[in-house]
Amino acid sequence: MKQNKQLVSWLLGCWIFLFSLLSAVGQPLNTVSQRAFWDTVPTRPVTFRWMAPVVLVPVGLALSPDYPNSHFDRFYVRSEIQDKIHFRTHADDYLQYGPAVAWAGLSLAGVKGRSQPVDRVLIGVLAYSISSVVVLGLKHTTNELRPDGSNYLSFPSGHTANAFTGASLLDREFGGVSPWIPIGGYAMATSTGILRMTNDKHWISDVLVGAGIGLLSTEVAYRVYPWLKRNLGWHKITPH
To answer: The whole model's pTM is what?
Structure first.
């Protein structure tokens, strides 16, 4: 019972921190939302899309070094988690795909999103491609040892990057339909990152940077896609 209470407290605390962060940095500097020329659904202010990863990545990098006698670096956070929460699960291996499944499901169900269905698929492929290249490149160049010592592919968290790429795609396409859609996506993504730490597979720095990479990958994909369309001769975008 005590272990369950500790787990619930840890999950709740992380959720409150991350959701507060995403909400705080997402507040617009003005009331104008940036829209692409194929938009049909109002989108979240552009401030959110850049500020969230701009906060997550530097904070993650700042927590990477071992600070002597520090009470807030990756080693301290890991020791607190593993000392108080003895919890292992494979749920994160599946939960990382939750936002992407929701994104695909809403598209297949015919829910009207921000862009045309074919454009949506190509943007999604582009976003995941960018995320995968960045994550795998960093994993094989940094050679960071995982907390559990299983291998040297710790930094950054690929599971978390996948989850936040999907959550950001879900937010971008369907955030204007209902606020509960992006909330659900970010809840799954946040849970994925938390479970990677409780499973002792990643440091907190890996998770924060992975989340930032996922968010940035989606933003870059939406920015680059129109240029690729014009210069590579992909199918013509038809505004609604």
So the answer is: 0.81
67: tokens are: 């600070």
Degrees, nearest 5: CA angle 49-55-57 = 100
What number of CA atoms fall less than 13 Å from residue 96's CA on the CB side?
18
Distance CA 7, CA 38 (A): 44
* DSSP for residue 148: T
Looking up tokens 């996948």, which residue turns up?
162
Whether 26 and 48 have beta carbons less than 8 Å apart is answered as yes
Mind listing the pLDDT tens digit of every residue in the chain (240 residues)? 555 555 555 555 565 555 555 544 443 333 333 444 445 444 455 555 678 888 899 888 888 876 666 666 788 888 888 887 777 899 999 999 999 999 999 999 999 999 999 999 999 999 999 999 999 999 999 999 999 999 999 999 999 999 999 999 999 999 889 989 999 999 999 999 999 999 999 999 999 999 999 999 999 999 999 888 888 776 554 444
The answer to whether 214 and 165 are in contact (CB under 8 A) is yes
Angle between helices 158-174 and 117-142 (to 10 degrees): 160
